[in-house]
Design a protein that fits this description.
Layout (H helix, E strand, L loop, with lengths): L5 E14 L2 E14 L3 E6 L5 H9 L6 E10 L2 E2 L5 H10 L1 E4 L13 H12 L4 H14 L5 H5 L8 H12 L6 E5 L7 H17 L3 E5 L3 H7 L2 E6 L2 E7 H6 L4 H16 L7
Parallel strand pairs: 3-8, 3-9, 6-7, 7-8
Antiparallel strand pairs: 1-2, 1-4, 4-5, 9-10
Helix pairs in contact: 3-4, 4-6, 6-7
The structure holds adenosine-5'-triphosphate.
The site of adenosine-5'-triphosphate (ATP) has 15 residues, from β1 and α1.
Family: Belongs to the ABC transporter superfamily.
GO molecular function: ATP binding
Main location: membrane
């Protein structure tokens, strides 16, 4: 594989948390790579370390957690060696994140348009007019109808699924090198989930961005991820091409996740923890 294509290379990542005088190794020796135009899925039960792994890449770990060992190479440079100032620049130019609940990402008192335009102008060299035009383009890319009208609306006027797509449109507006989506479909009904998966497919087919997709739903991973890692209790217990892992799961937890695929379609429940 051409090394130039690798966007994110996480090597032997270890994260500890410390709360109430107790230290816990919550991520242990986790390694993975994502190339341009590829989607890597991370699956695993609640508390297995998926979110802290993502937050460490963004340099946004909470005060009660820290990376104790490892490397996070973004296009070859180790983010763990970056200063806070450099990280802010990296987050603006190269990384973007979408979380489960888009409502908390928006200011309820401002229109979608003003927030979209403000963020675009913060990230890039846009006039207000150019930013407004680009916002319309991004919303169209997300297959959202009537983007001009949508930009005049307030967050509470949109459904969760629409807001999530607005968030994704905004997140990829400046073609980040790495797009991290942490449970982007979990709070959505099946129709909106499909819209979000289509949005991810579109980003993938543009071929410029590496995508890290966290989910506990194997259906979602199966739909868009080229490769998958399965985490349990802070460790990778299985990894490989998504189709191979699903066809031939080796680990007991992976088997459960795969079996729950059909169940999840109807109930959206998380599989029982082992
Ligand atoms: N801010 C924090 N301070 C201390 N410990 C934390 C903090 N956030 C998470 N943890 C602990 O770290 C471990 C990993 O949590 P993490 O949120 O990464 O799991 P997750 O796999 O993303 O779970 P979920 O699917 O529920 O979001 C858990 O044991 C959790 O309790």
């Amino acid at each position: 594989m051409d090394h130039d294509e690798t966007v994110l290379d996480v090597q032997c990542l270890n994260i500890e948390t410390f709360m109430q005088q107790e230290t816990m190794r919550v991520v242990q020796d986790v390694s993975f790579r994502i190339d341009k135009g590829q989607v890597l899925g991370i699956v695993g039960e609640s508390g297995c370390g998926k979110s802290l792994t993502c937050m460490s890449i963004l340099g946004l770990l909470p005060d009660t957690a820290r990376v104790t060992q490892g490397k996070i190479l973004l296009k070859g440079s180790n983010l763990l060696d970056s200063s806070e100032k450099e990280l802010i620049q990296v987050r603006r130019r190269l990384l973007s994140l979408v979380l489960q609940n888009p409502m908390i990402a928006f200011n309820p008192l401002k229109t979608i348009g003003s927030q979209f335009i403000e963020t675009l102008r913060l990230q890039g060299n846009y006039t207000r007019k150019q930013a407004a035009e680009h916002a319309v383009y991004c919303l169209k890319e997300m297959n959202l109808a009537e983007p001009d009208r949508l930009l005049r609306q307030y967050p509470f006027e949109l459904s969760g699924g629409m807001l999530q797509r607005v968030m994704i449109g905004l997140a990829i507006a400046n073609q980040p090198s790495l797009f991290i989506a942490d449970e982007p479909t979990t709070a959505l009904d099946s129709v909106n989930r499909e819209h979000v998966l289509n949005a991810i497919r579109r980003i993938k087919s543009a071929g410029e961005t590496a995508i890290l997709l966290v989910s506990h739903d194997m259906n979602v991973i199966e739909a868009v991820a080229d490769n998958v890692i399965v985490m349990n209790k802070g460790k990778i217990v299985e990894s490989g091409k998504t189709s191979d892992v699903i066809r031939n799961p080796r680990n007991e937890y992976t088997k459960l996740l795969c079996e729950s695929r059909f169940l999840n379609h109807h109930t959206k429940e998380e599989p029982r923890a082992l």
